[in-house]
Amino acid sequence: MERARLDQIFTSTERIRWIIALLFLLSLGQGRAAAEEEWGSSDYGWFLAGGASAFVLHESAHALVAKSFGFDVRLESRRKPIPFIVVRYDLISIKDESGQIQYTDENGQPVSHGAEKRYATASAGINSQNISSEIILTLYPNLREEPRPFLKGVLAFDVLTSIGYALVGRKDPDGDLRGMSEALGVDDKLVGTLVFLPAALDAYRYFYPESRWAPWASRGAKGYLLGLSFRW
Length: 232
Fold this sequence. Notes:
Helix content is 65%, strand content 9%. It has helices at 2-34, 41-68, 114-139, 149-168, 176-184, 188-207, 213-227; strands at 73-78, 84-89, 92-95, 101-104. The strands form two sheets. A two-stranded antiparallel sheet has the order 1-2. The chain has a two-stranded antiparallel ribbon with strand order 3-4.
């Protein structure tokens, strides 16, 4: 019954994710109009290529961090609650009788600093997005007015993925936020806020590049999230 309810939740919230994505893509279109540029098929291709590249970077970040801890990494597909490709690694979390989470490998052997490693690996994708977005908006603060469809595709993926996770992906059993909140031992809403904030600020920077406070607020939020990976 619990699994059935979870499937229903993600079936409905997936529609919300697409609505958010559509609104942001339409906003990017307004940015193109502001720059008085006309996009051809190649521009749309570059835009999609940017989004695809950001996706590869996100998943690669998970894999690289997991490998750095000595975990075996593999790609798998899933059908529920949302069809997707997931990066899996041999770190298993188990609640003991006292309610505390213990981390083991696939052979049942305890993993030292398991919570810290779980957080660093789970947050690697989000951190890679924050870093790539920061590089783009720092080098090209007026991106909205410039004909750079590839970079706009990267930024769109970064912002949409973080916002999507924060709004509708907190309970996803394979989701980054689930692993992050579990490893930190905090409510997933708090982690969702930490992920949402830099994405929202970057969206603001895209539309208001003249802002002086937004870049530093965004960098501070990103730095805090990244810093939690080095708390041990």
